[in-house]
Write a structure and sequence with these properties.
single chain, alpha+beta, 6-stranded antiparallel sheet, 27% helix, 31% strand
């Protein structure tokens, strides 16, 4: 049995359950949590595009580093975008091939990336940061 990298297993859970939970519970407006602060990382930088340990048939999929933050409780948080993955729509309709924003621990990203492919300008974030903060 193939073991999937930590962030591949968590993409749907983080992007759907996590954000919906924050919105439903009203945590986004009433949170007394410490807000993460931007930080630097020796390996990962915003704008980097990495190959990662993909599922079979998704070898062309990449992840892009959007932002790096630090939280006293969570440690280093790396915000990524995932491009060109295969996602099936169970109703037969169109399926997304991009995940615009997902935050992960540094350890999850570090254990998932394979090779730095290139560095590009950081794309504009699409509502994800505004929902979380």
């Amino acid at each position: 049995m193939r073991v999937r990298p930590p962030f591949v297993r968590a993409i749907v859970a983080v992007s759907v359950i996590g954000i919906l939970s924050l919105k439903i519970a009203g945590v986004a407006q009433d949170c007394k949590c410490v807000t993460p602060t931007p930080t630097d990382d020796p390996k990962f930088k915003p704008g980097q595009v990495w190959s990662y340990k993909t599922r079979p048939g998704e070898e062309e999929s990449t992840l892009s580093i959007l932002r790096i933050e630090s939280s006293p409780k969570l440690g280093v948080i790396i915000h990524i975008r995932v491009n060109d993955f295969q996602f099936k729509n169970c109703t037969g309709g169109p399926a997304p091939h991009t995940l615009g924003h997902a935050p992960f621990s540094r350890a999850a990203i570090d254990s998932s990336v394979v090779k730095l492919l290139r560095t590009v300008e950081v794309p504009a974030c699409e509502n994800g940061f505004e929902v979380l903060y």
